[in-house]
């Protein structure tokens, strides 16, 4: 609290001449603790904090004089799981400072590790055949993991004759689509070659265009 006759900086919050009302604030002129924190710990810094509580798909972290927040999307480079499966209330962890989010210091865990997508994109391309391990199975398909840590989706419609796959199985698949830093789509079906289509057209009298339409319908 300021002492009597002490000079202080204040901010005018409300001024009403008719009511002879003037509301001032000393607090509003003081440095914001989260802004001071980010000055001492700029983006990219590594800091330690204690997980305090969960808030929907995020966790609130105690950083001392300020609070930090980490969202599910910043937990790992792979498919983000539940925050509760990665962090535990009361545990101390090291985090990367990502910036400010309101009064919170935005934090991340995956930023402490190398982005596996960078390694993946250097090594693989659409059309490559690989043998991968199944890490999870769902009604819509299965997720298979590459050695670099990136997961690819094998949709149910692309499973072909291996509908009974289970976690732990190794499956030979072909990469049919890559969306960088987002998703990889796989197929276990046999690849249809252009020469096979032409050959079929020559024997049956169908044109190449008619055969393609026929195969799409099938």
What does this structure look like?
It contains five helices and twelve strands. The protein has 218 residues and is an alpha+beta fold. The longest helix is centred in the C-terminal third of the chain and has 11 residues, at 194-204. The protein is elongated, with a radius of gyration of 29 Å.
Report the count of strand segments. Answer: 12
Q: Label the structural class.
A: alpha+beta
Uncertain regions spanning at least 5 consecutive residues = 197-206, 211-218
Tell me the overall shape.
Answer: elongated
Give the % helix. Answer: 10-25%
**What is the CATH topology of the domain at 33-111?**
OB fold (Dihydrolipoamide Acetyltransferase, E2P)
Largest sheet: 5 strands, mixed, barrel
Counted by DSSP, the helix tally is 5
Secondary structure topology:
Blueprint: E1 11-16, E2 21-25, H1 33-40, E3 46-55, E4 58-62, E5 67-71, H2 83-86, E6 92-101, E7 104-108, H3 116-123, E8 129-138, E9 141-145, E10 151-155, E11 170-179, E12 183-187, H4 194-204, H5 208-217
Parallel strand pairs: 5-7
Antiparallel strand pairs: 1-2, 3-4, 3-6, 4-5, 6-7, 8-9, 8-11, 9-10, 11-12
